[in-house]
Amino acid sequence: MVVCLVFTLCFFVATSSGSSALKSAVNTSDSTHGALQSPPRDIEIPFPNFGRTARLKFAERRKNQRRELIQNLRDSINDQLILDDSGGFVSGQRICLPLKNTRGGARLKSNTAGASGTLVSKKPFDPNILVVRAMRQIIHGEFESRMGRSAVDRGIPTPKKRWRVNYRHENHTYIDLGKDFDMDDKSFTITALIRLRPSSGDKKSNRGARILSKRDSNNFGWEFVVPSYYTQTVSFYANQHPGHIDYGRSSIPGNQWTTVSIVVDRHTYENDVAVITPYIDGLPDGRGTFMQIIGNISSDALLTVGHARDENGHLSEGRRDFRLPGSPKYNPHFHGDIRDIFVWHTSLHKQQMRKHAAQILREIGRKPNPCPLGYEQLDCRCYQVFDDLRTYELAESACRQEGGMLAMPKTERIQDFLEILMQQSNMWSFWIGLDDRVQERRKVWADKSELHYRNISQFTKFPRGIPDKQYHTEDCVEELKTRPEFVWNDENCIKLNAYICEVKNTRNECTAAKL
Ligand SMILES: *[C@@H]1O[C@H](CO)[C@@H](O)[C@H](O)[C@H]1NC(C)=O
Ligand SMILES: *[C@@H]1O[C@H](CO)[C@@H](O)[C@H](O)[C@H]1NC(C)=O
Ligand SMILES: *[C@@H]1O[C@H](CO)[C@@H](O)[C@H](O)[C@H]1NC(C)=O
Ligand SMILES: *[C@@H]1O[C@H](CO)[C@@H](O)[C@H](O)[C@H]1NC(C)=O
């Protein structure tokens, strides 16, 4: 393996006619046209005395390598794109492309080769060709139009199925959707509009709940589970292997209509490789997990909303929780409301998911995002995660320049929301506006209010409830992505972290926060 240094090149993309000019940038299944879709022409390589097999092998490797590079470049652009509420492309944003140090380039070692045993290509394939080509198109002003052209007609495809189920746990043990519909060996996307209603504010009362289940008595089939038993995130079950996996990392907010989705892409890669990405309100909860899912995941069980039943219609029981006294079985009964379920036999991409979620949320009266560019709204505040690395103090001043302050997750509701935003970032640790720089062990929020963390009715996310203060210099608080959940950690303020800013919402349409 060649080890590559990664440099970064940044530029601004502007759309001429505002946010609707580009609906989406990249078609992940098409490599035939568009700015990033055209791979460099094949490079002629002399093969003096080697056999046909070696030549074909080499060509094949080249092809795969190139496909992978194009995919990586697309992914890196897609990951960075800021989208507006309708999934449109936002003007004036900064995009970075990875530049690789390609000295050494692509080499081929061939066992079938002649005496030397090694063939080194004279003109190695250079991934930077793609980046340079994109740059040239930007300079010549063709980039957007090419991106736009490859992105026309990228609306939301019609779902294969849409059920208005109007499930409520008081009225339903489950809703039966019959046996007719299944996933087979296809890519698919499931979205549900749900409202978790944890009993008396205890989020853990709703655990391992089935939104949609089709799993028989031999455990063949699949299940869409939200919130998952252990981490209260988006989870999916497919056959016995891989079984249940918590694909999400963000907790699902309670008492609020929310769209939750799972996108299972079994098309982009071959050999049973699936890419599985959970979404919350149209935002991906993480970058997607690569998983092996073999063959047909259909089963003869009944398709059931709000619970799990086998092929005979029997309600299934949850597994035992050996961590609790008496190791009780948990109840997979969904606690709350499920209004709609949509299923596609294709994997929707980020822009489509965003647009689709916005559409559903608009239907139930959730207002469009009134925040400044790049910020996401919760109640009356707007939040944005910034990926550049800063000390606490410099992060503070960056947020001040934005007209706000470092974010203050004073409630579980805000914390849950920030987790979804942090999941959009590749970074691992993020400053929030909480520190005890002025007086040791007196933790003060960015708005100068104090966090009385010893009062157990105050919300905190410290693993042991209080700052650990391993060193008394740990005066500033960061959010850490850990397994299984996000936690707060006190840390030295001169550590360089990504950070989260909050600003007031710019329009005056915000009613009082419903916390
Ligand atoms: C991508 O492009 C291909 C070929 O033009 C098309 O068949 C496919 O439906 C497109 N995919 C999406 C998700 O739009
Ligand atoms: C569902 O339950 C609620 C309260 O538990 C009740 O008011 C409502 O009438 C029920 N709806 C139906 C369709 O049974
Ligand atoms: C998958 O299995 C089901 C039965 O479990 C069958 O009806 C269906 O045709 C299969 N699909 C494919 C693509 O083989
Ligand atoms: C603890 O916090 C709760 C909720 O903010 C507050 O009502 C209560 O008065 C606090 N208790 C003490 C002892 O400060």
From TrEMBL:
KW Signal (keyword) present: yes
Domain C-type lectin residues, every copy: 378-502
UniProt superkingdom: Eukaryota
One Pfam short name: Laminin_G_3
Gene3D superfamilies linked: 2.60.120.200, Mannose-Binding Protein A, subunit A (3.10.100.10)
Keywords, comma-separated and alphabetical: Disulfide bond, Signal
Signal peptide residue numbers: 1-18
PROSITE patterns: C_TYPE_LECTIN_1, C_TYPE_LECTIN_2
Name of this chain's protein: Uncharacterized protein LOC100184082
Species in which this protein is naturally found: Phallusia mammillata
Organism lineage: Eukaryota, Metazoa, Chordata, Tunicata, Ascidiacea
